[in-house]
């Protein structure tokens, strides 16, 4: 019998308890052990619960952390503190740890992994990225033979749902956000999702593993989806693209380029068909080529799947001395986003007069930005809307061009700049 | 340093050698060990090779199997014998084994896994299914928490390429097969691929792991793609489907239903967009829901990715006492295909006379087969082509109906019966 202690009893933890109950029999057959939930740390013991854990709830963390019979701590409370303090203590007390806490791992992953290794204990966190989709373990094991070149994915279900709905209904961001909140697909404070922070945390974990070098969320240029209008979605469609919140990281000349940003993805790209709350991560490497992992990236059951798989894995390898520890044995530079080369989509409104386009084209040309397509749209009154897609260029060249264009008396607004993927 | 011996030096083995050379540095960093190819068993030492292995080639298997300094045997020769004999000897000699041999694992997997466990050695075979796409390890580990309900996938690249080309060019099987052979996408003897045997071997491995019960290739009803005409592809398209060679297995009432067959997949199903030589495997389980794995399922580099990842995994866990062994701890019955419930597509030609359709409809009705759609096609002379899709029915009811229809004097030919997926 293996005793586990669970920290937190929200949605995911409830799913974990249910999974351990529902699939109890074959989990025992697979592991040769009975997994026993001994204690669950909660804030409020008297709150009604969906699962029967009578006599196991406690508000005292030490009832888990100081209990020597508890061999695995499963942390599902989320947030940086006090989770960090709890898990350090758990590892120092010789307990294995499973966590779904992307915030914690993205900030303190290295320290916790090193502490785990020092204590010869496992720290597993498959559920921290893309819910039930296996991605951490495949990167660490099944693809360990690969020189990973690039990761590109949709790793936030809330924003993918919102963008899918905006695309299908031709609606604006605010309307769909309200709808998503009603349906429970978006939180009442949706900031971490819609501003891209959640995706940046997950990308920091994925790229740290893929490139064997620490990438923190702060190092990732992050743009949310709040500025995306239905106009952009419409124009993108006309140009053969779909707008998705894309998490992207690439190794180039030994350095790491990475970004979370709403991106025009070519309709033929496999990620263009990943809709609603589904997530997908594509990994490009040598020798594997392209592989993609697809599924539901959040929610009670998919996340519980990953958490319980980690518990099973620890249960199977209890005596194993072989702890992988932190795999960030390199120290790669993260390239500032201004230096990253990409194609870009720009929407701007200008006064519709002869010679304006020539001035704009000159500003791009003077800054070494060449244009792939230029479309004039929705002229209203004396204003014309220009939609442009550049060839590949570094962002600082584009910004220099846009600065010159902004200074033109005929320019009313540079409304939005978005990354473009999958064309060149 | 870890010494390995490789059996065979064909395409995949060449990719393995190249990967170990190209990615040598970081593989050493990841594992803390140098992986040294000590000996390679070949049929002909003098044949020119693409990789430099001077002095390491041998035609004597015992130079690998009897060499105590070789700790891992990598079997890439394929086929049942002598691979089986070699690997039994390797395990008995206390060596770990990595193999890409689906034929061998599908037939002797249990025996080899038990032998490995008895010798406390690893037997890994990620490359045996879907090349570089991680699927064996995810099923055994990342999804270990799940009650797997169903597996559905495209796991043969050759047939997927042929069907994709037939679809895109409106061409017939024989034309595209010849083209695929010229391009090296199909072998000169394409039987194992086009008759579905290769897919059945892979499905037997996947379902044995997923359902924890041995499924042999012989137990899997297998239908190849040689009978598919461009007409069927055209009719399927008009009915909102794409024809794919689908490997499918489901757990139902504790028993296993499985089948490899050309199948009309609804265009909205994620597998409908998996084209060319790409493979994809979708796994459905509780609690994870649906997850899909996508990538190139064959070829030198993708397969080498999986083989070398297995080598790395063994290298990392050398001292591990924890060998997973065979996971088939259940003994589930495999349902005869006649008892499997599904939707079906039928194309037949009949004499175009009043009352014929009524007789046909009666035969279906009398056998409890209800029809979802009936389309009359391409009437030529006094013959009409009928294309029907049934609602869900067990195959034996359908066959009884078709026997009655076959016996009608107005029936000229029941040309083909195909499974339909993703509608109901």
Structural write-up:
Two copies of one chain form a homodimer. Chain A is α/β, with parallel strands linked by helices and 424 residues long. The longest helix of chain A has 17 residues, at 102-118. In chain A, α4 runs parallel beside α5. The first copy, chain A, has three domains: 2-131 and 301-316, 3-Layer(aba) Sandwich (Rossmann fold), CATH 3.40.50; 136-296, Dihydrodipicolinate Reductase, domain 2 (2-Layer Sandwich), CATH 3.30.360; 341-421, 2-Layer Sandwich (Alpha-Beta Plaits), CATH 3.30.70. Chain A has 14 helices and 17 strands. In chain A, the strands form two sheets. In chain A, strands 7, 8, 9, 10, 11, 12, 13, 14, 15, 16 and 17 form an eleven-stranded mixed sheet that branches. The first copy, chain A, has helices at residues 11-22, 24-31, 62-65, 83-92, 102-118, 136-142, 157-169, 173-183, 191-194, 197-210, 230-238, 300-316, 356-366, 395-407; strands at 2-7, 35-41, 57-58, 70-75, 96-99, 123-124, 147-154, 221-222, 241-252, 255-266, 278-286, 289-296, 341-351, 371-380, 383-390, 393-394, 411-421. In chain A, 35% of the residues lie in helices and 28% in strands. The mean pLDDT of chain A is 95. Chain A is elongated. At the A-B interface, α1, α2, α6, β12 and α12 of A face α1, α2, α6, β12 and α12 of B. β12 of chain A pairs antiparallel with β12 of chain B, so a sheet runs across the interface.
């Amino acid at each position: 019998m293996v005793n586990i202690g669970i920290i937190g009893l929200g949605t995911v933890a409830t799913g974990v308890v249910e999974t351990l109950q529902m699939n109890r029999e074959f989990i025992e057959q697979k592991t040769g052990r009975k997994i026993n939930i001994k204690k669950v740390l909660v804030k409020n013991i008297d709150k009604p619960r969906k699962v029967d854990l009578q006599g196991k709830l406690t508000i005292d963390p030490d009832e888990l952390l100081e209990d020597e019979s508890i061999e695995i701590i499963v942390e599902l409370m989320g947030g940086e503190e006090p989770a960090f303090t709890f898990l350090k203590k758990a590892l120092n007390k010789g307990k294995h740890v499973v966590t779904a806490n992307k915030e914690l791992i993205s900030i303190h992953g290295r320290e916790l992994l090193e502490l785990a290794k020092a204590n010869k204990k496992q720290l597993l966190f498959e559920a921290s990225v893309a819910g039930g989709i296996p991605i951490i373990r495949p990167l660490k094991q099944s693809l360990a033979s690969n020189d990973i070149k690039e990761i590109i994915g949709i790793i936030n279900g809330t924003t993918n749902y919102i963008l899918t709905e905006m695309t299908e209904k031709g609606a604006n961001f605010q309307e769909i956000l309200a709808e998503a909140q009603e349906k429970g697909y978006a939180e009442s404070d949706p900031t971490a999702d819609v501003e891209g922070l959640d995706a940046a945390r997950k990308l920091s974990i994925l790229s740290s593993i893929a490139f064997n070098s620490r990438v923190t969320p702060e190092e990732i240029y992050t743009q949310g989806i709040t500025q995306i209008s239905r106009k952009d979605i419409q124009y993108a469609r006309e140009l053969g693209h779909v707008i998705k919140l894309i998490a992207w990281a690439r190794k180039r000349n030994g350095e790491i380029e990475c970004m979370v940003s709403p991106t025009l993805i070519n309709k033929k790209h496999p990620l263009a068909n990943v809709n609603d709350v589904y997530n997908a991560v594509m990994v490009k490497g040598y020798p594997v080529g392209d592989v993609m992992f697809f599924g539901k990236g959040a929610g009670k059951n998919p996340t519980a799947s990953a958490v319980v798989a980690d518990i099973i894995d620890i249960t199977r390898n209890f005596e194993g001395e072989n702890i992988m520890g932190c795999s960030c044995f390199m120290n790669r530079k993260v390239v500032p986003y201004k230096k990253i080369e990409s194609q870009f989509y720009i929407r701007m409104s200008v006064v519709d007069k002869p010679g304006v386009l020539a001035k704009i084209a000159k500003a791009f040309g003077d800054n070494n930005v060449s244009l792939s397509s230029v479309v004039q749209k929705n002229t209203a009154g004396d204003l014309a809307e220009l939609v442009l897609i550049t060839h590949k260029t570094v962002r600082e060249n584009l910004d220099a061009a846009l600065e010159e264009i902004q200074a033109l008396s005929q320019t009313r607004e540079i409304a939005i700049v978005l990354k473009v993927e999958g064309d060149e």
